[in-house]
Amino acid sequence: MIETVYFCTVLKFYIITKSHMLKKILSISGKPGLYKLVSTSKTITLVESLIDQKRLPIYPQEKIVSLGEIAIYTSDDEVPLKDVFTKMKENENGGKLSDEHKSNNGKLFSYFETVLPTYDKEKVYASDVKKIINWYNLLIENDIDFTAEEESESSDADNNDIHEKENASAEDSKATTED
Questions:
Q1: For the domain that residue 16 is a member of, what is the CATH number?
Q2: Reported pTM
Q3: Residues 159 and 106 in one domain
Q4: What confidence tens digit (pLDDT) does each residue in 78-94 have?
Q5: For the chain, what percentages of helix, strand and coil (3-state, to nearest 5) are there?
Q6: Which domain holds residue 90?
Q7: Same-domain pairing of 99 and 64
Q8: How many Cβ atoms are within 10 Å of 159's Cβ, its own excluded?
């Protein structure tokens, strides 16, 4: 859920958009672990590994998925990954999850059922649950608060410039049609 708040300083308006921290944590296909988004441009995305804190470029042809966009299938609907992580954190009292749950699929699924009792047993595989547990442990190790909201600012003046250009081009096209 995104909430937008407006405020004014002297002559500039800023838009503060609150989004969950998980939007900036990425999973990259073919690469181990999780990555924190550092910056983006048209041709490249710069990320930092949560495992070894090394920065590396990611190119457009690589598949990147934000953890904020991932949901788990349940019998009723889909549950956002953030909610699953929050429940895991409650179960583990804010600590890491032990590796004993990953030793066999029976223990793995019995633990996951305590976290999300209504998960879809046909669509959620053992590899998915192992990945979720690994991701949760990485987030805890790196002190990333996945329940917190992060604020980002964008200048309303930049948005006004875009609208002024659109209005000017619309007026130009209107003037040419009237002639």
A1: 2.30.30.730
A2: 0.70
A3: no
A4: 999 999 999 999 998 88
A5: 40, 30, 30
A6: 70-146
A7: no
A8: 12
Question: What distance in Å separates the CA atoms of residue 21 and residue 67, rounded to the nearest whole number?
Answer: 9
Domain count, the chain: 2
- Spell out a b/e string for 47-57, using b for 16 or more CB atoms within 10 Å of the CB, else e: bbbbeeeeeee
Backbone angles phi, psi at 73, to 5 degrees: -65, 135
Q: Is the pLDDT of residue 145 over 60?
A: yes
CB 82 within 8 A of CB 22: yes
| Residue among 91, 178, 77 nearest 132 (CA) | 91
CA distance 20 to 151: 9
Paired residues of 14 in beta bridges: 7, 155
Which stretches within 33-153 are classed as H helix? 81-91, 105-115, 126-141
Q: Closest by alpha carbon to 74, among 84, 86, 59?
A: 84
> Contact 14/7 with Cβ under 8 angstroms?
yes
Distance CA 4, CA 127 (A): 37
Residue length, the chain? 179
At residue 20, the pLDDT reads: 55
Domain match, 45 and 10 both:
yes
Q: What is the distance between the alpha carbons of residues 30 and 50, in angstroms, rounded to a whole number?
A: 15
Q: CA–CA separation, 137 vs 99, rounded Å?
A: 10
